[in-house]
Design a protein that fits this description.
By secondary structure, this protein is an alpha+beta fold. The protein is 26% helix and 34% strand.
């Protein structure tokens, strides 16, 4: 399923437009989004709103004027990965304006997904130095 994370006019990673994330669950989509755009406030996504594909395509943002005349900034596809203790993993190859980042997240409780996203982000940051 595809999820859309939209941006407003100020204080977010982009002005207008959106990020697309493909994931089987909203929790994994949010974790993949947070890995690149961490929460400014704990538990609050660093975007204006998050939509399912159906909701987004039914909005005016999917029209010719986009969202504040901006369109897709990033796309994050996922691939179904290997099983760990019977839990299926999702692998994300994230293309951003600052480079690429590979993540592997496991479908689990929301709190665990947030922790996994933070740990994956820290690993990615420190492995580049």
């Amino acid at each position: 399923m595809k999820y859309y994370f939209t941006y407003g006019t100020d204080g977010q990673p982009f002005v207008g437009g959106w990020t697309e994330v493909e994931a089987p669950t909203v929790n994994l989509a949010c974790a993949a989004f947070r890995a690149v755009h961490p929460d400014k406030e704990p538990g609050i996504l660093n975007c204006s709103s998050a939509y399912t594909e159906e909701s987004f395509l039914g909005s005016c943002m999917a029209g010719p004027d986009g969202n504040f005349r901006k369109f897709c900034h990033e796309r994050r596809p996922s691939r179904r990965g290997v099983s760990r203790n019977g839990v299926l993993a999702e692998k994300f190859h994230i293309l951003t304006s600052t480079g690429a980042l590979n993540l592997q997240l496991f479908d689990c409780k929301y709190e665990d997904v947030r922790k996994a996203a933070v740990l994956q982000t820290l690993e990615a940051i420190f492995s580049k130095h």
